[in-house]
Specification:
Layout lengths: L5 H13 L20 E5 L2 E4 L4 E4 L14 H11 L10 H13 L5 E6 L2 H16 L3 E5 L43 E4 L4 H11 L3 E6 L15 H12 L2 E5 L11 H6 L5 E4 L10 E5 L1 H4 L13 H14 L4 H23 L3 E6 L2 E6 L8 H7 L2 H13 L2 E2 L6 E3 L6 H21 L1
Parallel strand pairs: 3-13, 5-6, 5-7, 7-8, 8-9
Antiparallel strand pairs: 1-2, 2-3, 4-10, 9-10, 11-12, 12-14
The structure holds pyridoxal-5'-phosphate.
Length: 435
């Protein structure tokens, strides 16, 4: 059967009459695509669209679906809670269990500071805690890291061209919209560059509350920390009394049970978790060192720590904790990454791949690791990646349409991987022959 998405096209036409840009989230439609694909339901490792097409899903809702779709244990826990209550404006017993688990699992977590519903809110709260603890107001943010949709978070994370970023020594602070609050309290630093960060701390440390970063810069065609970068950053933060915040919204419960901090063995002062922690349900949190988290009041929010999401998070973590869970995910991620390496070699395409826990990444066009955000404009072949994503979609495979960061889920199968590698082989062969 020919691939058709006619119903999605029609729905988008209807949506444009009542939704700005026809969308609720800009991420629901790839920039290169005329309309989004409307999904009807998900099951296991697959999603099914309104036209009856099915897709092996490696996007997994941009990360939350670590267990895949409608995982029985999470669904059962949510269903049980659904018949009791979703919101009671009060803590419940499960909340204490969940907080206890996080404290037991996450290296930096002496305590949970607060639960929220999204990663954006968690980062906003973490920055507030850092300011309350230090009494200082400036924030150092790494160019290219994405921390959410608030004005203070959405700076220098969505440049269209490398020129827009300005001079490396004096980078532009790129705003997302006209009229966005001036990022006067934000200082932009470079990933993997301790000299750059030390210079900032040396000259402005007396005013700096925190540095916030994704320990793996997953929002920029993944950039991995060089050996010693996170360790050096830890030392600099101690030296200049700057709170170190790891935004683990992507890496948390994705790279492994202890997130990036466990994987790289560097403990921040504060860390934020979202996405995978709730197994598809909206819950996030800020955790950290006792002395730091105690400096600020707890968070607030009508929907924060609601019983439904707490039940989902508890059930998700209980599955993730099972022996061998991350080893199995990583073995599948590795199989995919190694398979892509072999295919690219065969077709003479440069590539860098990585597999950590439930994340596998590919950057076409380069066999050198990216160092910072600017590198991905210089080295990554975005056009080739986009062609690959488009071809995969037509053959029933959904990859991340924005960047080469893709996810396995607990329900991904060996057949999913074998089929996907076959399709990638065929598509890359075709792309090369047409060049
Ligand atoms: C690293 C990181 N931090 C924070 C956020 C914001 O999370 P949310 O979309 O749940 O507000 C995202 C979202 O993609 C993210 O990737």
């Amino acid at each position: 059967m020919d691939y058709s998405t006619e119903k999605s096209k029609q729905l988008f036409q209807q949506a444009q009459r009542c939704l700005v840009g026809g969308l609720s989230s800009s991420f629901h439609k790839a920039a290169w695509s005329e309309y989004p694909i409307y999904m009807a339901y998900g099951k296991g490792s697959k999603v099914f669209d309104v036209d009856g097409n099915s897709y092996i899903d490696f996007l997994n809702a941009f990360g939350p679906n670590i267990l895949g779709y409608v995982h029985p244990e999470v669904t059962m826990a949510v269903e049980a809670q659904l018949h009791k209550a979703t919101l009671m404006a009060a803590p419940n017993e499960d909340l204490v269990k969940l907080a206890g688990k996080l404290v037991d699992i996450i290296p930096c977590a002496d305590k949970v500071s607060a639960f929220m519903s999204s990663g954006s809110e968690a980062n906003m709260h973490a920055i507030r805690v850092a300011r309350a603890y230090t009494g200082k107001k400036k924030i150092v943010k790494i160019e290219g890291c994405y921390h959410g949709s608030m004005d203070e978070e959405k700076v220098s994370c969505d440049a269209q061209t490398i020129e827009e970023l300005g001079d490396r020594e004096n980078p532009n602070k790129i705003k997302h919209i006209k009229g966005q609050k001036d990022p006067e309290d934000i200082i932009i630093a470079m990933f993997n560059d301790l000299d750059n960060i030390e210079h900032i701390f040396k000259t402005q440390g007396h005013d700096i509350a925190c540095i916030i970063l994704e320990a793996v810069m997953a929002n920029a065609d993944p950039v991995y920390p060089k050996k010693g970068f996170l360790e050096g950053l830890r030392k600099l933060c101690d030296q200049y009394h700057v709170v170190l915040i790891f935004d683990e919204v992507i890496t948390g419960f994705r790279l492994g049970l202890q997130g990036a901090q466990g994987y790289f063995g560097v403990t921040p002062d504060l860390a934020t978790f979202g996405k995978a922690i709730g197994g598809g349900y909206p819950i996030s949190c800020v955790v950290g060192r006792e002395e730091v988290v105690s400096a600020a009041t707890t968070g607030s929010g009508t929907f924060a720590a609601n019983a439904l999401c707490v039940a989902a998070a508890l059930a998700t973590i209980q599955v993730c904790e099972q022996p061998g869970f991350y080893e199995k995910l990583e073995a599948m991620s590795r199989k995919m990454a190694d398979g892509i390496e072999t295919i690219c070699k065969k077709h003479g395409i440069k590539v860098t791949t990585r597999a950590i826990g439930g994340m596998w990444t590919l950057i076409l066009g380069t066999d050198e690791e990216l160092t910072d955000y600017r590198d991905h404009y210089k080295k990554a072949d975005k056009k080739m990646y986009t062609k690959l994503v488009q071809g995969c979609m037509e053959r029933g495979i959904r990859l991340n349409p924005w960047r080469g960061r893709n996810y396995m889920c607990a329900q991904s199968t060996e057949e999913d991987i074998a089929y996907t590698l076959n399709v990638i082989d065929e598509l890359l062969g075709k792309i090369v022959s047409e060049q």
